[in-house]
Amino acid sequence: MALAGESTGEIGYGVEVFTGIRPTGELTVANYLGAVVEVVGLQKEFEPVVFVADIHGLTDQDPGIVAEHKEEVVKDFLALGVDPERASIFMQSDILPELGATTLLLSRELTLNELTGVPTLKDQVNKAKLKEGKEGEDDPLSAKVMLGLYPVLMAADILAQRAHLVPVGKDQISHLELTRRLAERFNDRHSQTFPMPEAYVTDGDTEPLRILSLKGDGKMSKSERHTALFLADSPGVIEQKLRRAQTGPAGELTPHITSLSQIAKGLSTDTEVHQRVDDLIGEHMDGEPVMGTFKGVVTGVVNDFLADYRQAGERIAQDPGFVQDVLENGRGPAKERAAETLQAMQDALKL
Predict the structure, then answer these.
(1) Which position among 17, 189, 192, 323 has the lowest Cβ density within 10 Å, counted as fewest Cβ atoms?
(2) Res 203: pLDDT
(3) Which residues of the chain register pLDDT less than 70?
(4) Which is the CATH superfamily of the domain at 225-314?
């Protein structure tokens, strides 16, 4: 992999670190811990580029929902610590002409059999069908074409910006495989156009972060209002939700207890809080009835964190043009990189 500052050819180096988020609803604590924290950490070493994936949002969401939330996501990222002096943010739709053409040309390198075999596509199809009230139709061929093409569009996002590092968790490394396959095929068949994107594994040697729904199975989701902790929730709502949160019987360390522990430790840098969480879990494992106290500690941490978030959001709101300025500063370089990449692809394909 090329090092920062090295050239990869005529069209330049591209982006060091590249990541994105879909604007499909209000952000949750899980979104912060899973996406924003990594950008805040990475901006200390790199100059990450973040894109708001509003086109991806249209694959399974109403356009009105995407439009409502896409600028709110930017405000949230800024209020949660993303520094526009260190990180760049742009709207995916601002480079739609270049991105659409890149997706089309990349699709030339992929067979329909390979596309329908993408492991995550069936999951996406299932989610979309459930949203439409249709269960049991998990055949990828039953999906809308835009949803079916989302893996190619994801690859185009990364390759158009000539990204070198893409943050992923251990359980998401396979998501990058199709992008690498397409880049390798295009480079081998036509010309050395793309750097080979690498996974920046955010979990390291630690246990992968898995923030669960407060009740029942599955991850915490924006679509489940009553079982998710939203950044916009009031202190009283947070207390009520966590008081009702699922834990487990004394002596048993359940995934839900681990999830609540990860929330508390992820939102607080106070080592005393971390020790208190560990101590309470230890007492729980010894058979002590301490889950009420444990939930109280988690509630305090979440509400302290959200108080700081609200204050930062109020400061941002005092400058109505700030968010648009941030997006405009990100749009220019992103569009230029995408246009350079597309031109290189067209030249390689003799168009």
Answers:
(1) 189
(2) 59
(3) 1-10, 120-142, 170-172, 174, 202-208
(4) Tyrosyl-Transfer RNA Synthetase (1.10.240.10)
Beta bridge pairs of residue 17? 165
For CATH 3.40.50.620, list the domain ranges present in the chain. Answer: 18-208+322-348
Per-residue pLDDT reduced to its tens digit, 60-72: 888 999 999 999 9
Long-range own/partner contacts, residues 328-335 (CB < 8 A, 24 or more apart): 329/84, 329/88, 330/49, 330/50, 330/88, 330/89, 330/90, 330/91, 331/90, 331/91, 331/94, 331/95, 333/88, 333/90, 334/49, 334/51, 334/88, 334/90, 334/94, 334/95, 334/161, 335/94, 335/95, 335/98
CA–CA gap between residue 207 and residue 179 (Å, rounded) = 26
* pTM over the 0.70 mark: yes
Q: Alpha helix (H) ranges present in 235-351?
A: 235-243, 255-267, 271-285, 291-317, 322-348
SS3 assignment, position 291? helix
pLDDT at 311: 97
Ramachandran area for residue 9 (φ above 0: left; ψ -120 to 50: alpha; else beta): left
User: Which pLDDT value is given to residue 7?
Assistant: 36
